[in-house]
């Protein structure tokens, strides 16, 4: 049998040191595993204690507000009268009389037509306070109750501008039919007739193939038409002759030579010729509205002298 070699003192010393180190390492590992990790403090969530506290942070823009007025819209229909409109809206007839008194100088309510827009406003006590008459997209007339329980007239107008277009056509049949095909309205055709009726006869002088051109301007409030138009220029070529009319900045119309195309005096004292059934009376009233009908001057003139002698008039 082989003989075992005995440990030397040096080997015994190293072996003892190794055993001691192993025991120390085992003890340290046990202590580390049994150590506890301290818990981190957690702040509690803060919540509103009531619904009132939560609504205090809402923006004012979404807070509900009770309106203190109401407005009733009405579009004038055929057969409507101001009296019937006020009655259906619950506005007193006495207030209508006060409004008509405030409108005497302006007569804005004189020509109500189907399609006209009205707004009647009532306060929080359901008392009628204002009538708004929408003339067009740029103009509105208000009749507002005052402190003395009357109504005052107020007119608001927006800025407007004019946009022009050229309408051309040729005579095929009557001038009216040809102008309608070119895009002119009945009112614009009447204006052209008025401008050139003293230069030619639209029934006898026109021939098929005669050319015409009309410049029409449309009044605009922003990008919306107010419905108002005006004739800026007219050119009608009849054979070798051309008739023209141009609107000048003074509102009058002149031909290419600068001569007025309209006579100095009008045949009728109204914008539209009516059959005269009685003598002129400046105090004659409308049979329905009981108001004096407006008349226009028969010519453009200024009174430069008035006295016991004959008045002198400057045209």
Automatic annotation (TrEMBL):
List the residue ranges of the region (Disordered). 64-84
User: What's this protein's name?
Assistant: Cell wall endopeptidase, family M23/M37
UniProt xrefs under PROSITE patterns: LYSM (PS51782)
Q: Where is the LysM domain?
A: 72-120
| Keywords of this entry | Hydrolase, Metalloprotease, Protease
Q: Where is the composition biased (Basic and acidic residues)?
A: 64-77
Q: Which organism is it from?
A: Marinobacter excellens LAMA 842
One MF term in the entry's GO annotations: peptidoglycan binding
Tell me which Gene3D superfamilies the record gives: 3.10.450.350
Listed under GO biological process in this entry are: proteolysis
Under InterPro entries, the record lists: Csd3_N2, Dup_hybrid_motif, LysM, LysM_Opacity-associatedA
Q: List, alphabetically, the Pfam families matched.
A: Csd3_N2, LysM_OapA
Query: What CDD domains does the record point to?
Result: LysM
């Amino acid at each position: 049998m082989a003989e075992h070699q005995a440990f030397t003192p040096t080997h015994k010393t190293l072996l003892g040191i190794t055993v001691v180190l192993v025991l120390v390492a085992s003890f340290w590992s046990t202590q580390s595993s049994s150590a506890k990790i301290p818990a981190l403090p957690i702040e509690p969530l803060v919540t509103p204690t009531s619904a009132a506290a939560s609504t205090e942070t809402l923006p004012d823009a979404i807070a509900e507000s009770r309106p203190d007025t109401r407005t009733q819209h009405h579009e004038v229909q055929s057969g409507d009268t101001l009296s019937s409109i006020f009655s259906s809206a619950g506005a007193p007839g006495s207030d209508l009389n006060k409004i008509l008194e405030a409108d005497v100088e302006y007569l804005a309510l004189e020509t109500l037509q189907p399609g006209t827009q009205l707004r009647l406003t009532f306060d929080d006590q359901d008392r009628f306070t204002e009538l708004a008459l929408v003339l067009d997209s740029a103009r509105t007339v208000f009749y507002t109750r005052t402190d003395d329980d009357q109504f005052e007239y107020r007119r608001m107008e927006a800025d407007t501008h004019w946009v022009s277009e050229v309408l051309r056509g040729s005579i095929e049949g009557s001038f009216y039919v040809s102008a309608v095909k070119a895009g002119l309205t009945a009112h614009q055709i009447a204006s052209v007739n008025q401008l050139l009726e003293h230069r030619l006869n639209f029934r006898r002088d026109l021939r098929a193939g005669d050319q015409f051109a009309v410049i029409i301007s449309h009044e605009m409030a922003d990008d919306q038409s107010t419905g108002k138009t005006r004739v800026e220029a007219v050119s009608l070529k009849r054979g070798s002759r051309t008739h023209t009319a141009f609107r000048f900045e003074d509102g009058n119309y002149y031909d290419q030579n600068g001569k007025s195309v309209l006579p100095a005096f009008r045949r009728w004292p109204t914008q539209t010729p009516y059959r005269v059934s009685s003598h002129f009376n400046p105090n004659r009233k409308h049979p329905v509205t009981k108001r004096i009908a407006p008349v226009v001057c028969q010519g453009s003139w200024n009174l430069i002298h008035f006295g016991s002698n004959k008045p002198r008039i400057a045209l």
